[in-house]
Every structure is written in structure tokens, then in C-alpha cells.
Design goal:
Layout (H helix, E strand, L loop, with lengths): L1 H14 L11 H5 L7 E2 L5 E2 L5 E2 L38 E4 L1 H7 L5 H20 L6 E11 L28 E15 H66 L7 H36 L6 E4 L6 E2 L8 H11 L1 H22 L5 E5 L11 E8 L5 E6 L2 E5 L7 H66 L3 E4 L2 E4 L3 H35 L4 H7 L29
Parallel strand pairs: 4-7
Antiparallel strand pairs: 1-2, 3-8, 5-6, 6-9, 6-10, 9-12, 10-11, 13-14
């Protein structure tokens, strides 16, 4: 039953010949080309491509407007000319269309910049991992002073048999020594030289996939914020229309005879009008708040109020709501960049297991100099030696030590612990992959459920709003009608019924624009859940022509560049 309703809602949305709103779509959207009806994926699954826009058909011809500015169609479908939401004199309007907003979402949000900076760090770590086996080059000066009992290098007097002070050997040698030079110094396990660059490469691949994930997330966040602006601007326009109707209703009730309408009915209508004005003020507030959220996300001028160029009732269709889940889920599992990122981390963990298995089999190389354990790394030096205050024996000196050491950590038990740790990290990465796959298919199911429900709700909300307009008009016109009951004139429609119909109209406006926004948001949520790249809809198949927008920000805010900001020092 629900599936039939979804198909009926889809047909009603795509094929209906009249929109009850007489608001034309923007010129950019009207001129935008539609996309093809389908495309084949790598695994042979055929899916609806992103970017299909349901354009608003031309408004039907209507009769002349009445006192409200309404037009009654001959088909009995009410199509009121809902005026655009008004701007205050102090507002800075920021015109933008959906295609422009989605294009800005590809690079300007900070979530994308942060992902790019993380990739920079991973790239630097890969470069460092490739240089593990390259020795360091040291330069330095070393001075050494010795006083007390010891061998006499300068005088040639050395009596080892008298190896104690006063036993015939010299008591005070007073030696000076100096090294001036440099050396190549290196100590590295061969396992790290082989496997660390391989693991670092996989981590870099993961971070690059994270950039695409960030762009997809930024696209979804931008779409949600953009349709929130549409929702609240439409609700504000509806609230302004309800206020105008409420004022006319109050005037009509005030003009009725006091014998027909008691004073309390006037007060009730005045109270209803005050409530509608409060709702209009709140709707304007929500419009401005949603606008601020969008400008914050896209890093635009925070002082502006976003004024989308499309009509607020426009519906965007990227994926048909009745597409079977068996077609959608393989696309999502195979296309999401989060899956590719996690697979790269699994490969990095597997490389870590191989590294620890080979650690006891491959040596550790040490390239050192003179007395390296005491941090005297000199290999090629100018060497000076002297006695007392002198340093009169100078020569060139070279000391090079190259060692290869095989190591068993904790007699080999430490190596087993290292291997076990790396296998545990690999197992964790695999579990995270399984968890991510389950989350993705659940996200696809939830997104389709919201989309199908929104497709039905849009049709019902439009019908409800149309009936609400008809009901209010009937009650408003009926206030002038009376009938005689014996010698008493009685109203056919009472004022409280008109008040209730005005309240119902306000609720219907809010529900309609909220439902349309929910439908559009559900489309982009499903688009995101399937893992389609943001560039697909931002550049390759945009929903219309991207119009130029002013991206200049105030001087007290940092400018927005391309990629992460450069380091200052």
C-alpha cells in the first residue's frame, strides 16, 4: 500500500500540469539542461544519476484577482500569488542559486581544509619514512681535558707495572685533546627501512580518501543549510500572507452588525492576528538564523541574508524514491570513500604484521664514529693533543664503525608480543570496516525511508494547503451571508470558524514548506549515502548554471584561500 502511495506521489510530482503556486522558477534553473535518465555503474547496477531537477511548469491562466490579490482557477484549484518574503531596509540581500552554493561547498568549508591539512601531514610522514636509511650529517667541535693519574702520551714515560699513584708512574698528566670535524651517523632497523614507507603510503591513501569524504559531507551540510533557508523563507512568506488575511478578516468582523456578532468575536480575531504576527516575526528570525548557518559553512559575509533565486517550493529529484534497495546498497558499499579509506588502513596494519615478523630476521645497521656510546660521533677530524697548557701535536684522524646487529627482543618473546599487537590492530581495523559497511547500508535504508515518506507527504501537504485556502476563502466570504430563522437573522458562517480556518492555513503553510525541504534534504541524504562524489553534482552535472557570487568577507575576518593556510614560520 505504501509503495503504491510512493509511486502515486512520484507521478503526481513529476507529471502534474499545474502548481498551485503562481511563482516562476528562476531563469537560471529554467535554462539548465536535464540529465540523462540513467547510468551504469562499474558492477553493472543501473541507477538514476544525480542532478535531475523537477522544474516548475508554467502557471495556469487565472481569473482576475479579488480584494486579497488571489486568483481563482476555473478548475477550482486555488492558486494564490504568494508574494516573495519581504526584506527589511537594513538587510543585505545575498542572491545565490543552488548550483553556486554546491560549487562553493567543494573547497571553502573548513572541514575540507582540515582534511587537506591531514593529508599534508601524512605526505610528510611518507617522505620521512623513505629516508630512514639515509644517515645524518654531523659537524662539531669536541674539547677533552684530563688531569690526574693516567698514561703519558706526550713524554713517552709509561710504567704499567706501577699502576698506582706514587708507585713510580707519573702523578699528573694534565692532557688536552680536541676534535674538529664531522661524521655520518645512522642507526636503523632494516625492517623499518623496508616496511615503514609501505605503511605510510597506505595511510596517505587513507587521508586522501578522507578529503573526498569531507567534500561529500560538506556538500550534504550545504544542501541541508540551503534548503533550511528555503524552508524558513517560504514559511515567512506564508506567515506574511496569513497576517494580511488576518487583518482583512478583522476588518470584516468589525464591519458586521453588533446584533450579529458580539464584541468578543472582534477580540478573538484581534488576538488571532497578534498570534499570526508573532509567528511571522519568528519565521523571519528562523530565516536569518538559517542564512547565518549557511554563510558560516561556506565562509561568506556573515552580515548578509541569503536570498535563494529558486522558488521556495522547488523540488530537486536526484534519485527516484521507488528505486529498489537491492540496487542502491551495492552502489553505496562500493562507492563510499570511507570504505576505501578504511581498507587502506587495513593494508597499513597488515604491513605492520609483516614488519614485526621480519624484525628478528633482518639486521639493525649502525654507522658510527669514535667512541659513539659517549656521543663522540666524529669520523673525519683534525685531532690535537698536548700536555699542560700546550696543544702542540696535530694530525688528521679517521674513525669509522659499521655494525650489523640481529636482535631478539626479550629473548624473542618481545617480538611475539609485537606481532600479536599488530595482529590486534589489523583485527580492529577489519571490525571498523564491517561496522562502517553496516552503517552505510542502514543509512541508505533510512534515507530511502525518509525520501519515500517525504514524497507522499509533499502531495498531501499540497492538498492540505489548497484545501486550507479554499476553506478560509469560503469562511471569509460566508461572513456576509445570513439566513432567517423565524424573525431572527442568523449568520451562515460564524467568525470563530473563520478564525479557525486562518489558524489552519498558517499550519498548512508551515507544513508544506517544511515537507518540501524535507523532500529535498532526503534526496541529498540518499545521494550522500550512496557515495556519489560531490564533484558529480557540484561541477559535472550541476542543477542549473552556477552564477557568480560575491565571496568577499569583511576585513576583520581572515580571507578564504585554496587549501590549508600556509605556515607563518
Amino acid at each position: 500500500m505504501f509503495q503504491c502511495l510512493v509511486k502515486l506521489a512520484s507521478l503526481a510530482r513529476l507529471r502534474r500540469q499545474h502548481l498551485w503556486f503562481a511563482v516562476a522558477a528562476s531563469a537560471a534553473l529554467a535554462a539548465s539542461p536535464k540529465l540523462s535518465s540513467g547510468q551504469s555503474t562499474a558492477d553493472g547496477v543501473r541507477s538514476s544519476p544525480p542532478g535531475t531537477v523537477t522544474e516548475a511548469p508554467p502557471a495556469p491562466q487565472a481569473a482576475p484577482a479579488d480584494a486579497y490579490g488571489r486568483r481563482t482557477l476555473s478548475t477550482a484549484r486555488i492558486a494564490p500569488t504568494l508574494k516573495a518574503a519581504p526584506l527589511e531596509a537594513t538587510d543585505r540581500a545575498f542572491p545565490i542559486n543552488l548550483a553556486s552554493a554546491l560549487r562553493l561547498a567543494d573547497a571553502r568549508p573548513l572541514i575540507v581544509t582540515a582534511a587537506q591539512a591531514a593529508a599534508w601531514v601524512a605526505e610528510a610522514r611518507l617522505q620521512r619514512a623513505k629516508l630512514v636509511a639515509v644517515p645524518e650529517l654531523d659537524f662539531g667541535v669536541l674539547y677533552y681535558r684530563h688531569d690526574g693519574f693516567g698514561p703519558d702520551f706526550n713524554r713517552g714515560v709509561n710504567h704499567p707495572s706501577f699502576g698506582f699513584p706514587g708507585g713510580g708512574g707519573p702523578l699528573n698528566q694534565n692532557l688536552n685533546a680536541m676534535w674538529i670535524g664531522g661524521s655520518f651517523f645512522a642507526t636503523f632497523p632494516v625492517t623499518e627501512a623496508i616496511f615503514q614507507p609501505l605503511a605510510a603510503r597506505q595511510i596517505l591513501n587513507s587521508r586522501r580518501y578522507d578529503i573526498q569524504t569531507a567534500k561529500n559531507d560538506a556538500l550534504l551540510a550545504t544542501a541541508n543549510s540551503y534548503f533550511a533557508v528555503h524552508q524558513y523563507r517560504g514559511q515567512y512568506a506564508g506567515a506574511v500572507d496569513v497576517v494580511a488575511r488576518g487583518r482583512l478578516l478583522l476588518e470584516r468582523i468589525q464591519l458586521l452588525s453588533k446584533d450579529l456578532v458580539p464584541r468578543v468575536e472582534v477580540d478573538r480575531a484581534a488576538n488571532m492576528l497578534a498570534m499570526m504576527e508573532l509567528r511571522a516575526a519568528y519565521a523571519r528570525q528562523q530565516w536569518r538564523v538559517a542564512s547565518a548557518n549557511l554563510t558560516q559553512l561556506l565562509r561568506l559575509d556573515p552580515r548578509v541574508i541569503v536570498a535563494p533565486l529558486e522558488p521556495d517550493h522547488l523540488q530537486i529529484t536526484l534519485i527516484e524514491p521507488d528505486t529498489p534497495l537491492d540496487q542502491l546498497m551495492p552502489i553505496g558499499v562500493g562507492s563510499r570513500p570511507e570504505i576505501a579509506s578504511q581498507r587502506a588502513l587495513i593494508q597499513a596494519a597488515q604491513i605492520g604484521v609483516r614488519q614485526e615478523k621480519n624484525r628478528p630476521l633482518l639486521p639493525i645497521f649502525l654507522l658510527t664514529g669514535f667512541q659513539t656510546p659517549g656521543d663522540m660521533r666524529m669520523q673525519g677530524v683534525v685531532y690535537g693533543l698536548g700536555y699542560g697548557r700546550n696543544m702542540n701535536n696535530w694530525s688528521l684522524r679517521e674513525d669509522v664503525s659499521l655494525q650489523a646487529i640481529w636482535q631478539l627482543d626479550a629473548l624473542g618473546f618481545g617480538n611475539l608480543a609485537r606481532i600479536k599487537k599488530q595482529r590486534g590492530m589489523e583485527s580492529q581495523a577489519i571490525v571498523d570496516l564491517f561496522k562502517l559497511q553496516d552503517e552505510i547500508v542502514a543509512e541508505i535504508t533510512k534515507s530511502q525511508a525518509r525520501l519515500q515518506a517525504a514524497a507522499v507527504r509533499v502531495v498531501e501537504a499540497e492538498r492540505s494547503l489548497r484545501e486550507a485556502v479554499i476553506t478560509f476563502d469560503g469562511n471569509y466570504e460566508g461572513l456576509k451571508q445570513t439566513k432567517r430563522f423565524e424573525n431572527i437573522l442568523v449568520q451562515v458562517y460564524r467568525p470563530q470558524e473563520a478564525d479557525a480556518s486562518l489558524e489552519n492555513l498558517s499550519v498548512s503553510y508551515d507544513q508544506y514548506f517544511a515537507t518540501v525541504a524535507d523532500y529535498n534534504r532526503a534526496q541529498f541524504e540518499l545521494f550522500h549515502a550512496l557515495g556519489y562524489p560531490a564533484r558529480e553534482i557540484a561541477f559535472l552535472r550541476p542543477p542549473g548554471e552556477a552564477l557568480p557570487v560575491d565571496v568577499v568577507r569583511p576585513d576583520y575576518l581572515p580571507p578564504v584561500g585554496i587549501g590549508p593556510p600556509p605556515a607563518t614560520r
